[in-house]
Amino acid sequence: MDQRLREIIDILSSTKDYVPGTVIARRLGLSRAMVHRLVEELKLLGYIIETHPRRGYRLLVSDDLSLADRYVRDIPGPLKFRVHYVEKCASTQDIAEALARQGVPEGTIVLAEEMSKGRGRMGREWIASKGGLWFTIILRPRKIRYLQLLSLVAGASIVEGIEGFLGVKTMLKWPNDVLYNDLKLAGILVEGRVEADIVDYILLGIGLNVNNNLPSWLKDKATTLANITGRKLPRIPLLRSILYRFNENYKALVEEQYDRITSLWRKYSTTIGSRVRVHLIDGRTIEGLAEDIADDGSLVVKLTNGTRILVYAGDVEHLR
Ligand code: BTN
User: Fold this and answer.
1) From the CA of 205, how far away is ligand 1's center (Å)?
2) All residues at 6 or more sequence positions from 20 whose CB lies less than 8 Å from its CB, including other chains
3) How sure is the predictor about 7, in pLDDT bands with cuts at 50, 70 and 90?
4) Distance from the CA of 178 to the center of ligand 1, in angstroms?
């Protein structure tokens, strides 16, 4: 996000009252017309700002996800996003699946304030209390080949979206955990229906810890953006920032610019160059050096005996 936008938000968040345009203009060394333009930009991002002709601008502290749909519709790119909001559900993946079977177009998003049975990778539970961003994007990619890369695209888009919006740098652990100081901030779950090599639908589930409270047993493994920044964050502009990047990167996928995707992922990777233990889905465990990712998104691990293995699915532990 533009530094000037961030500064206006800081000024407006410091009070519950109106702040005159002239005061903001003086503090930032800008003209009043420019302040007005920037405030309009903030509104488009999902901030709710009241304008009064004499008193100036006032930030309304609303973090109402039920309004999200109106702030995602103009995001450019191949996907036309629409948000289907639910206050509480078992898992957004289930609602998205029912919608996908009814034939809704790709780009439809199921967004929940709270989930009682959130699902994680490898059959694990995902804790999703109020205050986080829990959503599933329905996709209908034309080629099966996109599937492995899709989760890399999603991981890189979350990292870019967080950095763009907050200036906070996060990292990716293969295949797509988003980490901050080795603590998990976000996870991605890819499910779907593929028959005879034809993709019917893909459910891309994204869980990002924002303002939610984590249970005590998770605190040495996970963190939230509110913990990192020390303040409660507005989730609509954050969601928008992530979807903005996702649509750009999804375009690269559809246009088969696979190199762009793998290099983007490498840029944010904390796995490449690390010694790793990988728990494969067949129950075996391997150890070695994570050398790179291959063009199809699989992880290249060099074992101690020099053999290279391509890992398509599994759980990676970084060894120190
Ligand atoms: C993981 O890292 O294990 C993946 C976590 C995925 C969580 C998201 S939250 C939205 C969507 N709905 C779910 O039930 N799970 C995914």
Assistant:
1) 5
2) 55, 56
3) very high
4) 12
Which region holds residue 245: left if phi is over 0, alpha if psi is between -120 and 50, else beta? Answer: alpha
Measured in Å, residue 206 CA sits from the centre of ligand 1 at 5
The more confidently predicted of residues 127 and 45 is 127
Residue 131 has pLDDT above 90, yes or no: yes
Residues pairing with 292 in the sheet:
300
Chain-centre distance for alpha carbon 209: 10
pTM score: 0.90
77 Cα–ligand 1 center, Å: 24
Residues 6+ apart with CB under 8 A from 233: 166, 210, 211, 225, 226
Ligand 1 site residues, Cβ closer than 6 angstroms: 91-93, 115, 118-121, 124, 126, 128, 134-136, 177, 187-189, 205-207
Q: 280's torsion region: left (phi>0), alpha (psi -120 to 50) or beta?
A: beta
Ligand 1 centroid – CA 290 distance (Å) = 25
Q: Beta-carbon neighbour count of residue 176 at 10 Å?
A: 24
Nearest atom (ligand 1) to Cα of 207: 9
3-state secondary structure of 57: strand
Query: Over the stretch 163-216, which tens digit does the pLDDT of each residue have?
Result: 988 889 999 999 889 999 999 999 999 999 988 788 899 999 999 999 999 999
Per-residue confidence at 276, pLDDT binned at 50, 70, 90?
Answer: very high
Ligand 1 nearest atom to the CA of residue 115, by list position: 14
User: Phi/psi of residue 190, each to 5°?
Assistant: -110, 120
- Residues ≥6 apart with Cβ < 8 Å to 242: 133, 157, 158, 160, 161, 162, 206, 208
Which amino acid residue places its CA nearest to atom 7 of ligand 1? 207
Cα four-point dihedral sign 254, 258, 259, 262: positive
